[in-house]
Specification:
Layout lengths: L2 E4 L2 E7 L1 E4 L14 H13 L4 E3 L8 H10 L8 E6 L7 H15 L4 E9 L4 H5 L5 H10 L3 E8 L3 H8 L6 E5 L2 H6 L2 H10 L4 E4 L12 H10 L5 H9 L5 E6 L4 H13 L5 H18 L19 H14 L6 H5 L13 H5 L6 H16 L1
Parallel strand pairs: 3-4, 3-10, 4-5, 5-6, 6-7, 7-8, 8-9, 9-10
Antiparallel strand pairs: 1-2
Helix pairs in contact: 1-2, 1-11, 2-3, 6-8, 9-12, 10-11, 13-16
């Protein structure tokens, strides 16, 4: 198992592969974690070198912390690390912060928390975490001083400027960001990573396989990657892409089946970073993948002038592309919550398609999105 030194204390060492416990196996017909199956995969991870286990107050209705803590309780406490997170939602007073922290401590039953995070710092939550009347950071610093927290950090889903603002507040012990080869190329991940590296904040990675989306791309790209590495999974390429990044401390994988745990352990035991030739192969695969699942909208807005419904078509197509890349309903939340004209208002006149230099069948996409958005409401 690849091991990394913790930059702020080289005596601390962590397996590069960490286990995220947001997607533990569930009981049949329920969203609650299956304690037996969950313990089996946690046991396999632990006995094969994984020593960092990540949860949060809100994961799986609060049951993730309970199951994770109980599964690890059979092992010597100093042999593993637990991470959990304080949400911003529901925080109105200092009492709320203390209550949630104490609940997490009780659920985990681990005596102390090795890595504790302000959860999901973004444009909508940063003011709550920084509000002096609520006092999140002073309280957490006091818990650290009392030994209940060993390392204090935050997770970020915000823009780079929001990340930099929060990261500069204090000397954070670590930070967690979404990081994978797709977001590295088409998003702001590279910039976010470089901000943390510049500030000397060790990085924990979440969503290295983009919620499972990078475990299989398309038939053509999967065949290309398999031809290059026949004995390796498609998901292994995502992990290996990250392995050469020096500021990384842990790469979390939200493993929910024994097959996933076995394959990931194999990757981190037997593989190293991508070679230069493999980097080229992956780059070609990503290019083909993007062309296959997204539409080539350039934002020229020629489609908008004659739209009888006044739809901001490029904005809708941007959301469509984001959804196509990861199939997450979160990518369409903005459309679903907006009062502006959207896919449901498309009358199918075809004027937009006639004006599109890229020959995109816009009415067809509007129809697809309208069905998807209707399904989200049910």
């Amino acid at each position: 198992m690849i091991v990394r030194e913790y930059k702020k204390n080289p005596l601390e060492k962590y397996a590069l592969l960490g286990m995220g416990c947001m997607r533990l196996p569930t009981l049949e017909g329920s969203q609650e974690p299956d304690p037996v199956k969950s313990e089996e995969i946690i046991d396999y991870a632990y006995t094969h070198g994984v020593n960092y286990f990540d949860s949060a107050y809100v994961y799986m209705g609060g049951k993730s912390e309970v199951v994770m803590g109980k599964a690890l309780s059979k092992y010597p406490r100093e042999s593993y690390c637990v991470a959990s997170k304080l949400p911003s939602w529901g925080l109105q007073t200092a009492a709320d912060v203390e209550r949630i922290f104490n609940e997490t401590m009780e659920r985990l039953g681990t005596g102390y928390i090795d890595f504790y995070l302000c959860h999901n710092v973004n444009e909508g939550s940063i003011d709550t975490f920084m509000n002096p009347e609520i006092g999140v950071i002073p309280f957490l610093e006091r818990m650290k001083a009392e030994g209940k927290i060993r390392h204090l950090g935050f997770s970020s889903h915000g823009k780079p400027e929001t990340l930099r603002k929060f990261a500069s507040l204090r000397d954070w012990d670590f930070a967690q960001i979404q990081m994978n080869y797709l977001d590295w190329e088409i998003g702001t991940t590279k910039q976010e990573y470089e901000i943390l590296e510049e500030l000397g904040i060790p990085t924990v990675v979440m969503e290295p396989v983009r919620g499972g989306r990078l475990a299989s791309l398309t038939e053509e790209t999967d065949a290309m990657l398999k031809a290059a590495q026949p004995d390796r999974s498609i998901a292994s390429w995502a992990f290996r892409f990250l392995m050469d990044k020096p500021n990384l401390m842990v790469i979390l994988s939200g493993m929910s089946t024994m097959d996933q745990v076995i394959d990931n352990v194999k990757t981190f035991n037997e593989c190293g970073p991508l070679s230069e030739e493999e980097q080229k192969t992956l780059s070609q695969a990503v290019s083909i993948f993007r062309k296959a699942v997204t539409v080539p909208c350039t934002g020229c807005r020629y489609c908008c002038d004659d739209c009888p419904s006044g739809i901001d078509i490029p904005k809708v197509l941007e959301a469509y592309n984001a959804y196509s890349l990861n199939k997450s309903p979160m990518a369409l939340r903005g459309l679903a919550e907006s009062d502006a004209p959207g896919p449901k208002d498309c009358v199918g006149c075809g004027s937009c398609a006639n004006h599109c230099p890229q020959n995109i069948d816009i009415p067809e996409i509007m129809s697809k999105l309208s069905e998807i958005l209707d399904g989200m409401k049910k």
